[in-house]
Amino acid sequence: MSLPVVVLSPLAQEPRDGAAVKRLAAAVDRACRETGFLFIKAADLSEHDIGQLLALTRLFELPQEAKDALDATQSPLFRGYNSLQHGKHSCTPEDGQRDAKESFTLGMERAADDPRPASPMHGPNQWPPAQLLPDWREEAEAALGRLLGVARLLMRALALALRQPEDFFTSKCADPVAQLVLFRYPPTPAGPPARGCGEHTDCGFLTLVAQDAPGIEVRLPDGSWLAAPPIPGTLLVNLGDLAQRWTGDVYRSTEHRVVNRSPATTRHSLVFFCNCDFDALVETIAVPATAAAEDAGADAAGAAGAAGASGGAAGDGAAMAAGTAAAAGGVAAARSKAGDGGGPAVYPPIKAGEYILQRLGLMHV
Ligand SMILES: O=C(O)CCC(=O)C(=O)O
Ligand SMILES: [Fe+2]
Questions:
Q1: How many angstroms is it from 145 CA to the middle of ligand 2?
Q2: Does ligand 1 come within 6 angstroms of the Cβ of 197?
């Protein structure tokens, strides 16, 4: 078992090669149903560009007191620095163990006079002083923009994979709730390797990871762990719980962890957690429980559209109940299964930002 590498360039090319776009959407669909993990390659993000993104982790080379001056606990949105010794690190806080890593979190800013509706998850970052890290802020702001561009390309692929209009997700991501987190995981010179990031699922929509050394591991359906070391010129992508919820549990948000098993190499990563606009409504999409055969794609798309519009169940025999749920005015607070046959689940609609806020609250308190 290995994770696929999906090349997104057919979506950025004009004129479109329809067959290549269809193959790309099918590859994304398959990966999202299997593990929700894949590597992506985007034409305007070269290996050199990814190296430049990772160069932001030079922040960790600042003297400890300069990093402590940016402590995340000073920030209402918990943005800034988390130290190896004192910070709150754990993605799995309930087990009381601390993760062996430093991190630095940035998010989307918004000027006080911005005319858009307020978003509780937009706000000021803590920036390292320019005299200590010249150009760092400009590079970090550019990185946010670049990664958002790649995430939007991926969203278009996902929308096509789900047989939705191509702008289904991008139209909900004009000014998304997003965070960029830099990590530094120390090596393990002796003894059992320390846990860098406890096993967890991501709570949001899409996660894009640039990494310079092995360490991240993905839980496979049989319970074993698959290492996902860096592939030059690619980003590792995984779907979070919001994506799983959106697709009625058909697409997977899979557990993963980080363990730096190297005795000598420090691992750095740059992780872009991309969600949707704070007010974007996430309503379960009608997704066939089983993938349509590639050459039957057009037929399946037609069936999916019809099922969504009429609120019925159709397609390749899989239950497609999201339309039904919407027509019935929503479902009970708990998830409900579409029939007893183990078809896609249906969740009540929720605003993306509220969902993330709730989940991050759980992660960080
Ligand atoms: O550092 C990484 O590669 C991934 C970290 C991670 O899974 C997370 O912070 O959610
Ligand atoms: Fe994660």
A1: 21
A2: yes
Mean pLDDT of 89-118: 81
Nearest alpha carbon to residue 182 among 299, 48, 318, 80: 80
Q: How far apart are CA 284 and CA 88, in angstroms?
A: 33
Ligand in nearest proximity to the CA of 181: 1
Task: Give the other-Cβ count within 10 Å of 120's Cβ.
Answer: 13
Structure tokens at 341: 């046959």
Tokens of 293: 């055969």
Domains of the chain: 3-359 (2.60.120.330)
Beta bridge pairs of residue 180: 106, 272
Q: Is the CB of 54 under 6 A from ligand 1?
A: no
164 lines ligand 1 (CB under 6 A): no
DSSP string across 30-74:
HHHHHTSEEEEEBTTB-HHHHHHHHGGGGGGGS-HHHHHTTBGGG
Distance CA 154, CA 273 (A): 13
Q: Which residues pair with 102 in a beta bridge?
A: 184
Task: Compute the C-alpha angle 65/140/130, nearest 5°.
Answer: 45
Closest-CA residue, ligand 1 atom 1, reads: 269
Torsion angle defined by CA atoms of residues 170, 356, 45 and 106, in that order, rounded to the nearest 10 degrees: 130
Ligand 1 centre and the CA of 99: distance in Å? 11
Q: For 150-191, what is each residue's pLDDT tens digit?
A: 999 999 999 999 999 999 999 999 999 999 999 999 999 999
85 pLDDT more than 50: yes
* Ligand 1 pocket check for 211: Cβ under 6 Å: yes
Going along the chain, which residue ranges are E strands? 5-7, 37-41, 80-82, 102-107, 178-185, 195-200, 206-211, 216-219, 225-227, 235-239, 256-259, 267-274, 281-282, 336-337, 345-346, 350-351
pLDDT at position 89, please?
57
Cβ of 259 less than 6 Å from ligand 1:
no
Q: Is the pLDDT of residue 219 over 80?
A: yes
Q: Model's pTM, two decimal places?
A: 0.87
The Cβ of residue 341 has, within 10 Å, a number of other Cβ atoms equal to: 10
Q: Hey, how many other C-beta atoms are within 10 angstroms of the C-beta on 192?
A: 8
pLDDT score of 315 = 32
